[in-house]
Design goal:
Layout: E1 3-9, E2 13-20, E3 26-33, E4 45-46, H1 48-67, E5 76-83, E6 89-91, E7 101-102, H2 110-120, H3 122-129, H4 138-148, H5 150-155, E8 158-160, H6 162-171, E9 176-177, H7 178-181, E10 187-188, E11 193-194, H8 196-202, E12 212-213, E13 218-221, H9 224-230, E14 237-239, E15 242-243, H10 244-251, E16 259-264, E17 268-274, E18 289-292, E19 299-305, H11 309-318, H12 323-328, H13 334-342, E20 353-355, E21 373-375, H14 383-406, E22 414-418, H15 425-435, E23 439-442, H16 448-459, H17 466-473, E24 476-480, H18 487-508
Parallel strand pairs: 1-5, 5-15, 9-12, 16-22, 22-23
Antiparallel strand pairs: 1-2, 2-3, 4-7, 6-8, 10-11, 13-14, 16-17, 17-19, 18-19, 20-21, 23-24
């Protein structure tokens, strides 16, 4: 039996999943959590050593379960990597990590964004790398280290992204895969190479940057040392893999024009496939990102809301449910319980609006200091209203992303939903109602890990192309049609939602 292993390095933990190459079915999977550190408000860091230990544990668990089904390490034809974008991993001359990784959610580098934009020139930066300098991106984080931790920066010899650090540990190869490199604000996205113009303007040594490698080709093989640690066979090819969103798109078959992906994880994204490096020109600064796809010679436009599942996670931890509810709904997990409460509230949450800017915001506001909150709260509102308004507020933010991408002229024939939030029938229905489009769900329950595995299948010669891999393994399993009767309610609520940020910006957008 031919199998493929996908590793997804997420924000909360590592997911490893082993798939049948024939039909894409999951053979085994494992998830291992690690810590997200917040040393100061707006900061977000993780320990690469914890990523590595979690990766080892998840692979071991997958292979143990597979062995019970008679599958051997030699049956794994390839391993693919997916991971959270934008994180800074700095290595010294010996390949040792110099500090915790500053990850995508970190917002400390606003000053560096302004400096970088000034040094390169706002319009030139878009010309060179197709995107503005944002606090979520890699380059401003790297500049923050240079400005604030010069003794660490002086020792740095290589910059890697999170999943590419795992590649280094698996194979000994220092490389950066193209769809992930596109999110550094240092890559010439149109031509797939490091922008020498940007590097020169901001004074970064090109030697810090490793080679850029394709997503669907082998970038190295499992070393004998790693084979002994994990149970994998030495020499197993490791594909370039992809950024989590690019792999999520591959894992849901969004690999050709007309298809879009809507993902609700810690952050939320709307991503549309494009055959050209199209850049948002609707304003002075692009409000959606243009990145290289994990599909060769393809790109995607992507809008991001920072606090999608993050907002509901906060509600779970800080508002909770009464014991009586837990007694009535024994056997349901916390998110199911929240959905049960939210279902009791009518569409529109009776005028209560939630702004999901709990970690700043990207699309459409590009504001690292934006703050979230409830607007319109009355004495008649209950916890159930708070919960439903969070689900609706995230849906409104995703509509911001969807509208901007659609207005670029891309024809979106189908939207495929994925991520933990999209697994909720209620939240999926709310999003379909707010966007006014049908959402479809595929059999790719493992999302980015599955996409990474399919890329490994191409790299290992199991499939001839990414498109063939998707055609053989991906099927639509659910459809959620919008409720036309609710359209007027959500249109009015969305109009109120879009008016709130401009009105409240002087109050809710400022450094802590």
């Amino acid at each position: 039996m031919q199998t493929l292993l996908g590793i997804d390095l997420g924000t909360t933990g590592v997911k490893a999943a082993l798939f049948s190459a024939e039909d894409g079915n999951v053979i085994s999977d494992a998830f291992v959590e690690y810590t997200l550190y917040h040393p100061h408000p707006g900061w977000a860091e993780q320990e690469p050593a914890e990523w590595w230990q979690a990766t080892i544990s998840s692979i071991q668990s997958c292979l143990r379960t597979a062995a019970q089904q008679g599958i051997q390490p030699e049956d794994v034809r390839g391993l693919g990597l997916s991971g959270q974008m934008h994180g800074v991993v700095l290595l010294d001359e010996q390949g040792q990590v110099l500090r915790r990784s500053i990850i995508w959610a970190d917002q400390r580098s606003d000053e560096q964004c302004r400096w970088m934009t000034e040094k390169v020139g706002a319009s030139k930066l878009i010309e060179y790398v197709s995107n503005p300098a944002l606090t979520g991106f890699t380059a401003p984080k790297l500049l923050w280290v240079r400005d604030n931790e010069p003794e660490i920066f002086a020792k740095a010899r290589t910059l890697l992204l999170p999943k590419d650090y795992i590649r280094f540990r698996l194979t000994g190869v220092q490389a950066m895969e193209i769809s992930d490199a596109a999110g550094t604000c240092l890559l010439d996205v149109k031509h797939g190479r490091w922008s020498q113009e940007v590097l020169a303007a901001i004074g970064l040594d090109p030697g810090l940057l490793p080679p850029v490698v394709p997503a669907d080709a082998a970038s190295g093989t499992i070393t004998a040392e790693v084979a002994a640690l994990t149970g994998l066979a030495a020499g197993t090819p490791v594909a370039g893999g992809g950024a989590d969103n690019a792999c999520g798109a591959v894992g849901n078959g969004v690999v050709e024009p007309g298809l879009a992906l809507l993902s609700v994880g810690t952050s939320g994204i709307v991503l549309a496939h494009s055959n050209s490096p199209q850049v948002d020109t609707s304003g002075p600064v692009p409000r959606v990102h243009t990145f290289n796809h994990a599909v060769p010679d393809a790109w995607y436009l992507m809008g991001v809301t920072q606090g999608a599942g993050l907002s509901l996670h906060w509600v779970r931890d800080n508002i909770g449910l009464p014991e009586s509810a837990l007694e009535r709904w024994t056997g349901l997990d916390a998110y199911d319980l929240l959905a049960r409460e939210a279902e009791r509230v009518p569409a529109g949450s009776e005028g209560l609006i939630f702004l999901p800017y709990m970690q700043g915001e990207r699309t459409p506001h590009l504001d690292a200091y934006a703050r979230g909150g409830w607007i319109g709260l009355t004495a008649s509102h209950t916890r159930a209203h708070l919960i439903r308004s969070v689900l609706e507020g995230v849906a409104f933010s995703l509509k911001d992303c969807y509208n901007i991408i659609r207005d670029q002229g891309l024809e979106l024939k189908q939207v495929r939903a994925t991520g933990g939030g999209a697994s909720s029938p209620l939240w999926r229905q709310i999003i379909a109602d707010v966007l006014g489009v049908e959402l479809v769900v595929t059999n790719a329950s493992e999302g980015p890990a599955f996409g990474a595995a399919l890329l490994a299948g191409v790299a290992g010669g199991v499939y001839s192309s990414v498109q063939e891999a998707c055609a053989k393994t991906i099927r639509i399993t659910k459809r959620t049609a919008p409720n036309a009767e609710l359209a007027p309610i959500y249109e009015q609520a969305y109009e109120t939602y879009t008016a709130l940020y401009p009105a409240l910006k002087p109050i809710i957008s400022h450094p802590l």
